[in-house]
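Example record used in the benchmark description.
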Amino acid sequence: MTKRIQIGEITTTHGVRGLVKIRVMAEDESLLNGELYTSESGSNTLTITLKNRQNKVWLAEVKGYTDKTAADALRHTPLYIDRGALPEAADGEFYYDDLVGLAVVDPDGAPIGKVIGVDNFGASDLLEIQPLKGPSFYLPFVDEYVPDISEAAVTVIIPEGLLE
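Model output (structure tokens):
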């Protein structure tokens, strides 16, 4: 089975003609035009046509949904694309999803744990790290704390007091 990447989410409806608002999670918004999966593993799809940007979301038409009542059922629907449909990352670039599972090390190469997620709750991107012992924690995904990323590991600088 091909791995899928979430690239958007239908957040709510707009107007009475069935338009929806989509929060885009991809740098290339055009990836949201066309047929997209509604789960990581199921076969259900929606055909999306982006209309115009409205602040932080896109207004879009969903094929077969022509009124607000029908479109209301789509609220909070995630939108996925097959990983293979994404363009190759350029040298020195990566997809956040590619970081999940990588080892996390300190600047001297000592193991700290592994990356279990990359999230953004509104302010900035955060690495979720599962340390060798204890509960997972978040680290701001900025150069100050994440100075290097390779194919094998993510090097981090843990602020004093975070793991104590």
